[in-house]
Design goal:
The protein is an alpha/beta fold. The chain is built from 19 helices and 33 strands. Helix 2 links the parallel strand 2 and strand 3. The chain starts with 10 loop residues before the first strand and ends in a 7-residue tail after the last strand.
Amino acid sequence: MIRRHKKQKSKAIVVLTRGYPEIGGYDNLIARNLSIEKNFQGDADLLIFHEGNISSNHQEYIQSKTKLRLIYIAIQPFDPIDGVTFFPGTEGFGWGYRHMCAFWFYEFFNYVSTYEFIIRIDEDCFIMSSLDEMFTHLEQKVCVYSYWHPKDSDFCTIGLTEFVDKNIEKSHDSNTKQRPSGPYTNLIGFNLNKLRSNDALFKFIEKVKYSKNIFIYRWGDLPLWGEVLRYLFDSQSYSSMPEFSYYHGSHKFFSASNPAIDAIETLRPKPCPFPLIKIGGDKDGAYLLPNDLQGIKACFSPGVNNFKNFEDELFEIFGITSHMCDFSSDVEKFKTPLLNGQTFKKKWLDVNGDKDSISLADWVNELEPDTNEDLLLQMDIEGAEYRNILNTPTSILNRFRIIVIELHGLNTVNDPAKFEKELGPLLNLLDQNFTCVHAHPNNCCGDVILTGSKLNIPRVHELTFLRKDRWLEANKNGYYKPLLPHPLDISQNNVDNPPLFLDEEWLESGKRAPESIIKMLSDQVDYLNRTLQDAKSREKLQTQSNSNTVLDLHRLAQHAASTQTPITSRPAALIDLAHNSKFSLSSTWAANPMEKIVTNNHPYFFHTKLGRNEFITVDLGEEYFLFELHISNRTDICKERARCLFYCAHSTPKPNLLTGLPVKIDEDFFSLNDAVSITQLVQCRARYLTVFSPEETYLHFSELKIFGLKDGGFND
């Protein structure tokens, strides 16, 4: 146990968490506590704020996993506030999230009055650097943090700049206006005495609290603290600790020095004030644009490759003419003739001054010289987009209301030298006056993972940007949230390659919409149907590539299932029906028996051979109503073999594996020995339950439980 020494200053490490129905829900919190224990040698209380919903039994369980001194503090429940209506477009963030932002901006002061220093470490943050050093920095600073988030989303800072201008007593940076930004608050330290001594801070806090704007607009604690620090404290009194290392689990990234991590935020789609529509057909060359085309004079479209479906549809539906150029094309070879007002130049778009090239500025000035007219840019020029955009005056770029651009070679995100040369400057330039409203990965060349994060970056990426002044009409209709993928997206640019999707980490909410999940499943099924019709693809399906496809479908099915509401509530008196029941296997490895009794055994209690559709079937002896399936993975090695599991419940001995449903699995299932996969079953009567994997793998679990009741727990 860490003990307090009277002469030491009062320190606390704090977290706000929730109560979970099962102890497995506290795995992140326990892992966080252990990482603190490993990286902190000093004396501090560990305060765990909760809404009074962590039971005493669960508190004892969490405490049993660490030597640190845990202090549980119940705060006011995060209930709805009378008279508050969420601003349109922010409804995806509920009362809990808004209360959390309010708690970390002002309410926490009520619970830390006896402390001089606190470090907030959220339950999904795992520490890999010395917290003692962070506390030492705090003795001289008002605030320390891992890094400063350069800009927060437009939709969660609505009206904040104007509110700050009107209500804060600025003493620093008073002449500097910028988009709200702030310290990344999932790991941050405060010198409370320095905060308490600033009267202007608490005057501003009272105004924010009285306005209820945190609840109305979903203002975040990150930009609020950013504005407070910038305007009420000297810039030398707060600082980042870039050498501090930690892992942010829910956002799946390490705090790292990769310069692309902040800049890549420019590519994250934001809620749009206009719905998206598709222009250009259903194949490669079609794009999604905001339905804000009224009044656009013309489209500039370099790189047509003898196809102009996009440009023709713009003219036929919206009356927008197009100017095209491509040295590799000829107007005589176009698949459709030039329409009224459409023009074509047999030139490259380039800045080299060659006779066969034309710059974007010269092209626009020649054909659309009226600077009061809005334009549209659709650019796919195989990597030449960087030098052309970077060498175009901002006065020309800002004439484009919408920019649709295909970026190539985005794998440079993991090469700092190359990133700083082209991609980084391009993103910074676009971010000055444009906001990304849609992203569609081109599946031609695959993707890479951004070092220091879990963001997947397509090597070729189709992006739609809308000029920032077009948000002025947003208050009328609210915002349209990003959908990744969007139901209108084309399935594949290259039909020979599997579909490519952006991970959920690209979404600010961290959760994919049901219509996007359906779109993903549909695209996957379409691709599989096509490949199954090809004899050569049939051979490929016997290789590991098929295994990866099955795994992807399993993950998608898990996610889709997790969005469904259970049919009934879970009865309190469920019993483990599998304990001491007989099981049978599809095959057995080494001296392990084909049939035996279900028991708990480490590292495993059964072991199949390597194969596809290997299974374990549990015979419960008679029919029961089944509610939950609990599985504990093998506890020593080879945990990844259980990555793609399905189950089926049946009343005859032989399972029908075509009726399988996904077993819920998360990353802890492969890393923690005590992690339990808990799957809510589609409630039914059955005598047998089978767990299987369509992948080529072994099966071996350390524990398997099936919870149910004789009568189903229903009252007539």
